[in-house]
Design brief:
Layout lengths: L3 E2 L5 E5 L5 H15 L5 H4 L3 H17 L3 E7 L2 E12 L4 E8 L8 H15 L5 E7 L3 H9 L3 E12 L2 E11 H6 L4
Parallel strand pairs: 5-6
Antiparallel strand pairs: 1-2, 2-3, 3-4, 4-5, 6-8, 7-8
Length: 185
């Protein structure tokens, strides 16, 4: 297995796979309320079987070249993750996303990790558009998009039903030409 250093603070980016379901579930349990403020991942990974199934779904996506999943470890502890929720090699587009437990927030881990996967998608896989969809209420995630040089494409009003409440989704993106010329690279 490989690990990519995310800096000099002991942070690493690694594949997150089904055999790590117990570690993933422990991570979800530590951050369940915090992570669940904006995304449904804690609801999906509610127990060991569902956590393993979700990780397997991304292993299947990786095998089909339609998605990827990576964990963020800090000093050997899984504290978050980044992913390509959608990866369309034929259309050369993808959608990146993230989550992080509260103890690891505010360190720039997500920005550094997303920078690695977006750079890979653009430089190695030839992706021409990377999209970032985020709850309009998720200011930290919007700031990640801004730090990566993404542009706000617009708002999908009342697009996402989450825990009984309709939420607006902001769509951000960066094009390969912008990435290669801009602050994200």
């Amino acid at each position: 297995m490989f690990a990519i250093s995310l800096g000099d603070d002991g942070a690493e980016l690694r594949p997150l796979e089904p055999w790590q379901a117990e570690e993933f579930l422990a991570h979800m349990d530590r951050g369940r309320d915090f992570i669940g403020r904006h995304i449904g991942l804690p609801d999906i990974a509610a127990d060991l079987d569902s956590a393993r199934a979700w990780l397997q779904s991304y292993a299947d996506k990786a095998a089909a070249d339609t998605g990827r999943l990576y964990g963020i470890w800090l000093d050997g502890l899984l504290v978050g993750g980044v992913l390509f929720r959608v990866f369309d090699a034929e259309q050369r587009t993808c959608e990146a996303g993230c989550w992080l437990e509260p103890a690891a927030a505010g360190r720039g881990l997500v920005t550094r990790a997303v920078r690695v996967i977006v750079d890979w998608a653009v430089r190695v896989r030839g992706v021409e558009r990377v999209e970032w969809q985020v709850s309009a209420e998720n200011t930290p995630s919007i700031r990640v998009a801004q730090r990566l040089g993404m542009s706000r494409d617009g708002v999908l009003r009342a697009e996402y039903l989450y825990r009984g409440v309709r939420r607006d989704t902001e769509v951000w993106s960066v094009l390969a030409s912008e990435w290669l010329a801009g602050p994200g690279a």
